[in-house]
From TrEMBL:
Residues 50-113 form a coiled coil. CDD domains: ATP-synt_Fo_b. This is ATPase. Keywords: Coiled coil.
């Protein structure tokens, strides 16, 4: 069961509770407390998922850097090979420089894309955690309001 499911069950428990006078709800405390305990226990899981997204971003960046280094190394080897084997030194040198520029441009583009993707993943992770916490806060505030109102109705 996910945290969101537990929140949905908590909401359903509140909404399905018997109604008293003036639309007040009689809430089964054990069920609500059980759901809250589950949420408390599983909230770290949601945070771990967000952290896993950040680790995934770091892996993507590292992979992009390795790929860029491989491209540059390959371009350098190709340039050396062209210089050594070619009878037209200027043409080989121009090709090698072009390969290096292309490799650099490709590596920079890959790095830029990786950074954008990692930032997007990071923002999505933070947004998801914020939404879960905001939803939990609203539901808990509503539960507290219902509980306070119920207690006030019980007082003479």
């Amino acid at each position: 069961m996910r945290v969101q499911d537990a929140l949905d069950q908590l909401e359903a428990a509140i909404l399905d509770s018997p109604r008293l006078f003036w639309s007040r709800t009689l809430i089964e405390e054990d069920s609500i407390l059980e759901q809250l305990d589950f949420i408390r226990l599983n909230m770290p899981t949601a945070l771990e998922e967000a952290e896993e997204l950040l680790r995934q971003r770091d892996r993507i960046l590292a992979q992009a850097d390795r790929y860029a280094q491989e491209i540059v190394a390959m371009a350098q080897r190709k340039a050396e090979q062209l210089l050594n084997e070619s009878t037209i030194l200027r043409q080989a040198q121009a090709q090698a420089e072009q390969l290096l520029r292309q490799a650099y441009q490709q590596s920079e583009e890959l790095r830029r894309q990786s950074l954008q993707e990692s930032e997007r993943l990071h923002q999505e992770a933070h947004h998801y955690v914020d939404q879960v916490l905001q939803d939990l806060e609203l539901r808990l505030l509503e539960s507290l309001r219902v509980i306070r109102n119920g207690r006030q109705n019980l007082q003479p």
